[in-house]
Structure formats: structure tokens, C-alpha cells
Specification:
about 500 residues, two-stranded antiparallel sheet, 24 helices, 8 strands
Length: about 500
């Protein structure tokens, strides 16, 4: 199967796409991705997951100490695949290795899917780039949303469906669910739509049974979800305006996009009548990706946090339409136009930005079992830049080095605030992002919770840094070390 024409070129193109946009960050010995959303949490979660193997944990005491918090790693597939790298080279190397593998595999599985539909090699490769190298999947790498980069699982499922391989399709369906709940959601819809032509699509839904342990672990870690506020859902739906190209200067803290482009629509339209099921799937997923419509009151759909992620189904269904038009016009390279347009006009920067991988030397002096860093995380409304997100470099990423637990808890995808212990409210009141009156510090409550040391980030506290340190000393804390804007105190 992999010896058919076009595979050597597909491997070269896929690996080039997987690596080249990451090279500036890698050469700078930084982490590919920007720190404003999920990058550091993804690396931290990978470390928690790998450290727990072979057990699958649904709770960790690393955050929310001493009680801990519910935990489910967003990408168990990355954790399992990256474990050998993690064990040898650490969590950052494992994150980068699995990111590169996922990017390449997404293009290759899309190519295999399109070749299984008998598209010519060059047309299939162009369609594979439309899907696997789309701004949509590239944006996940930019944000560090690790589970989003596994578009290969959905493409592999479609590949096995059109080749009429029931057992492989069932397994691929389960992998799709494990890769991302959102891709699993897309696969469920497309299985119903495509089942009218491919019976294997209906049979593959049995993969739900194979994914049951993961579903149990997720619900056991976080409990039942409640219906989402429609205003939040629409905010997380497909943008309905033409975006500012990512090539332009300026910071875009989010990589949320459903950019399709003019070329993809123009090339897909002539083939829609010849392949109506793929056209229907593309339209259905596009409508759902907006987050608008009465169907969002239905069970399951009412709990979907990020409707724009239905866009994966739109791309998967557009790819064969674009490839067919290009092949029928005997200009297979036309299928690559949507990819080129996405690089130039989509809101996602072509080159993945970087986040710091190093840590200040003061972290090597941390000897606490529980370390309180000030200021901590702040929950904010979805869709708005969260200025506290880069702090995850300290209380999550640095933790992988000093191994001390943190009393802070995290918000889940910006939807609900972390349930911090009541005694933390006084410390949180000093956070300039909250604009709250400073409260007296209760170090006895902190000690009772197991906090041994406090690390103050003076630059993040801004003008209140001197007053906060004075309050710590007045309450009985002792300065251990100071490095630049960082001050470490023992309680």
C-alpha cells in the first residue's frame, strides 16, 4: 500500500512541513509554540501522565496541594508515544518529538485517504496539505494545544473506511476519540453521513466501546459537565469575518481559525455533485463550527466548549473534492493552492513562535514540598487574552525541575475558575490583574496547608512588590535568595 506512486514525495513533503516551521524555535533551544494558552500546561500534563505509567491517574497532588485536583491528560496518545523519549530526554523533548510526528502523520494519513479514493498522487498530496497542513491544525501547534495536532487519527479512520477495512476502521475510530473528544465528535457525525456509501463507516462506531476506559477516566477526573452558556459557545465558534493575515506584524494570542480560503471553495464546488456525501459532510461540519443554531440545545452538543473544532470535518470532506477537481482539469498542482493561500492569508503565522525553555537559577534553590508562587493563575472569560497564562511557565513548567507541589488550582479551558482554597484569597488579592484591595496575609493558614516557601515575582506584582515583601517579613517569613525580580522566602 505504501509502495504505490507518490509515497516517497509525500514523506518528504510531510516531514518538511512538520519540521521547517518549528526550526527557528528549535535552533534557539526554545519550545515551539506561544505561552498564552496551553503550551506549558501541555508539557506539564505530559510529564504527569508519563510519570504515572503504567497506571492511568485521574487525580494529582502537584496542583491544589494538599488535596490535589482532578487530572486527565488531554492527549494520552502523545503521552504513550512520547514515553520512551520522556524517560530518556525529558518532557520537552517528548513534547517536541510527538508534535513533529503528529504534524507529519496528519499529512501522510490524509494522503493515504485520498489515494484510497483513487486520486492521482499530486492531486492527493495537494488535498492532503489542504487538510494536514491547514491553518486550523497548524494553529494548534502555535498555541500548544497538543491534542489538536493529531488530525492523523481522523484521516486514518477515513482511509480505513474507504478501503473497506472494518477491523482497522473500528480501531481508527477509537484512536480518533482518544486523540481528541472533538475529533471523535466529528467522526461520529461523518460515520452517519458516509455510511450511506460506505457501510464500514457505520460499523466503525463500535470503536466507541474500545474508547470507553478513556471516557470513564475523563468523567471520573472532572465529573459531569453542565450545559454551556450560548454566548461563550458563539465566541468559541468559527469567526465569520475575514481575518488579518498572520504574516502581518503584531501578536495574536490565539490561533483559533476556520480559514478555508477562496481557492478551496472554488476548487471544491465543481466536484460537489459528483461526490455529494463529501459535500454534505463539509457543509454540515461548517454549520456546526459556527456554534449557532437550535441544535445546540440537544444533549451532548449543549456541552461542547469549542464549536470551531468541527472544522476538522469540513477540511476532511473538502480534500477529496479539491483533489478531484484538480485531477479532472489535468492540473493536479491546483490542489496545492489552498495550502499556499493559507500560508499567505490565514490569521496563523507560518512560522511557529517560541516560548522559553530555560528557568532562572533561583529555582535550583527551591527545597520546599509545597511552593507558593505569587502571583498565581487567574481565570478569565474565553476568547479574551489571559495575561496570567504565561505564568504557567513558573507554577507548572518550573515544577518539572524543582518537583514541589503548588496550592494553586487551574481553570478548565477558561470556562470555570479554579477552586482555590479560601486562605489563598488574601494572596490572590495582591494580583494586579484582579484589581482587588490588598488583604492581610495569613501565613499560619499557608503553613497549615503545607506551604514551605513563597516565591515572589516582583515584576508581575508591579508597584505592590515592595509592600507584599514587607507584609511577608512582618508575618514571619525569612528571605532565602534573590535573583533579579525573583525573591524566595521560607515560612
Amino acid at each position: 500500500m505504501l509502495r504505490s506512486p507518490g509515497w516517497p514525495l509525500a514523506f518528504v513533503v510531510a516531514l518538511t512541513w512538520a519540521v521547517v516551521p518549528l526550526l527557528p524555535a528549535l535552533l534557539a533551544r526554545a519550545i515551539p509554540g506561544q505561552p498564552y494558552t496551553d503550551l506549558y500546561p501541555s508539557i506539564w500534563g505530559l510529564d504527569v501522565f508519563c510519570a504515572s505509567l503504567p497506571a492511568i491517574v485521574t487525580h494529582t497532588a502537584r496542583m491544589g496541594a494538599p488535596e490535589g485536583i482532578g487530572f486527565y491528560y488531554s492527549s494520552p496518545l502523545h503521552g504513550l508515544a512520547g514515553w520512551p523519549v520522556w524517560a530518556t530526554f525529558g518532557p520537552v523533548a517528548a513534547y517536541v518529538a510527538t508534535l513533529i510526528a503528529a504534524r507529519a502523520a496528519t499529512v501522510l494519513c490524509a494522503f493515504g485517504f485520498l489515494r484510497a479514493l483513487n486520486h492521482a498522487p499530486l492531486a492527493a498530496l495537494g488535498g492532503a496539505l489542504l487538510y494536514g497542513a491547514s491553518p486550523f491544525f497548524h494553529g494548534y501547534a502555535v498555541e500548544g494545544i497538543v491534542e489538536g495536532t493529531d488530525g492523523w487519527a481522523l484521516a486514518l479512520w477515513a482511509w480505513m473506511v474507504v478501503r473497506n477495512r472494518p477491523v482497522a476502521a473500528i480501531s481508527a475510530f477509537a484512536l480518533t476519540i482518544l486523540s481528541s473528544w472533538y475529533l471523535g465528535m466529528v467522526a461520529c457525525l461523518l460515520a452517519v453521513v458516509l455510511g450511506a456509501r460506505y457501510r464500514t463507516a457505520w460499523i466503525s462506531i463500535l470503536g466507541l466501546l474500545l474508547a470507553t476506559p478513556a471516557l470513564w477516566a475523563f468523567t471520573h477526573a472532572f465529573g459531569g459537565n453542565t450545559p454551556l452558556d450560548p454566548v461563550v459557545r458563539v465566541a468559541m465558534g468559527a469567526p465569520l469575518w475575514f481575518p488579518v493575515p498572520g504574516l502581518t506584524p503584531g501578536l495574536n494570542p490565539f490561533a483559533l481559525t476556520t480559514y478555508v480560503g477562496f481557492a478551496a471553495v472554488a476548487l471544491a464546488f465543481p466536484s460537489a455533485r459528483r461526490r455529494p456525501l463529501w459535500a454534505l459532510g463539509a457543509v454540515a461540519c461548517a454549520i456546526l463550527s459556527t456554534g449557532r443554531g437550535p441544535w445546540w440545545d440537544l444533549p451532548v452538543l449543549e456541552m461542547v466548549r469549542f464549536p470551531y473544532r468541527w472544522h476538522a470535518g469540513t477540511l476532511l470532506c473538502l480534500a477529496p473534492l479539491v483533489a478531484e477537481t484538480a485531477a479532472r482539469r489535468k492540473r493536479p498542482l491546483l490542489a496545492a493552492l489552498p495550502f499556499l493561500e493559507g500560508l499567505l492569508l490565514s490569521p496563523i503565522e507560518p512560522v511557529v513562535p517560541s516560548a522559553p525553555a530555560d528557568l532562572p537559577a533561583i529555582y535550583a534553590t527551591v527545597a520546599a514540598d509545597t511552593l507558593l508562587e505569587i502571583p498565581g493563575p487567574v481565570a478569565m472569560t474565553p476568547g479574551k487574552p489571559n495575561a496570567s497564562r504565561p505564568r504557567a511557565r513558573w507554577f507548572l513548567y518550573a515544577q518539572l525541575s524543582h518537583h514541589a507541589s503548588s496550592p494553586w488550582t487551574l481553570d478548565f479551558n477558561g470556562i470555570a475558575g479554579g477552586r482555590n482554597a479560601p486562605w489563598l484569597a488574601a494572596f490572590a488579592s495582591w494580583d494586579p490583574l484582579l484589581h482587588a484591595p490588598n488583604q492581610p496575609l495569613d501565613l499560619d493558614a499557608a503553613r497549615t496547608a503545607g506551604v514551605d516557601e513563597v516565591l515572589v515575582h516582583r515584576d508581575l506584582l508591579e508597584r505592590d512588590a515592595d509592600a507584599f515583601e514587607a507584609a511577608l517579613v512582618a508575618a514571619g517569613a525569612t528571605l532565602i535568595a534573590r535573583e533579579g525580580d525573583l525573591a524566595l522566602y521560607r515560612l
